[in-house]
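Working notes for the structural subgroup meeting. M.R. asked for a predicted model of this chain before we commit to crystallization trials. I am recording the input and output together here so anyone reviewing the notebook later can reproduce the run.

Input as submitted:
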Amino acid sequence: MTNSTAMARKVLVVSTITILVVGILAVGSASSFYSLKETGSDTTYLKGHVLRILIGIIAGLVLSTRSDLFFRRIAFPVYLLSLLAIIATFVFGDTQFAPRVNGSVRWLDFGVRILPSDFMRYGFVLLSGLLISRGSVDIRKFRGVLVIASFALLPSLLTMFQPDLSGTAFTLFVMLVVLFVAGARFSHLAILVGVILLLGSSAVLIRSDYQLDRIKASLQENSLQHDDNYQTLQARITLGSGGFYGRGLGQSRQKRGFLPEAHTDFILAVIGEESGFLGTTAVMLLFLLLFGSSLWIARSANTAFDAVVGGGATAILLTGVMIHTMVNSGVIPVTGMPLPLISWGGTSLVVNLICVGTVLGISRRSPG
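Returned structure, recorded in token form:
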């Protein structure tokens, strides 16, 4: 391991730990009202969050010690099982095993809710790295681009019809990053993006009133006739009411029943209210450190497999932050997306820590 890679590894570890601590404080504050109302204790959600962090850390640390051979072996099984789990949401839709939550059937419930698409994206990254590194596809040819893209397009089509617009966009963006890191031609990527935009917009227009309503609401941002506008306006009020320094930890007013999903999809708004512009900026800088160190490690990887997987794992973390931030600031239509490593939520948090552990493992295998 070179000195620069070792430094990137330290930055990645420190930034991840700091973000997790911020998440514990944020979830503890943002969830207290709902937790007290639903369970009689204001720390129930916080305790569950800390437990999930511990599970994710253990999983990440274990994976950080594994060889690239291990990841090559699990690539197809992880992808296939995750894809089958997504299909199961249609088979068991609107039952206790696949409940409808906020208008979408995207979860499997085995006593613990699991979001299959989160694991599928990780499996896609591993599978793409495997196929590209062993020469099964020529990523410089359009046919090779289509082969890799197909492994993301199929589950994306399924998640679109759950409907899960944010999950679909999430997967497609990770796919584009993986193709870019692997060396796909820009012209091929441009064609792929054009086709996706054309087919995606057509599918939304034909298939889903649910998704159309989200888009219409965002275009009428000053109107309260759409429920989605209520969420957007409340998020903006929450995010902006903190001023420069914020109201102080635990002093959010909007979390007390005004801002929906305060501890999950809109937790950045609560952070903005309690810590102000200063605190929100600090959180974004922490994420920049995390992304920068991860990309450096991926760039310094010893093999094509590690380079693709490192870039893809970073893309999973980056995309979640981008979507969550844009939703909270009203840039894009409201769609459910937790803030990586901060929001309350099981599957997302564990997979994010698995991604961090995977990148740490790549740094351990780097030359030097």
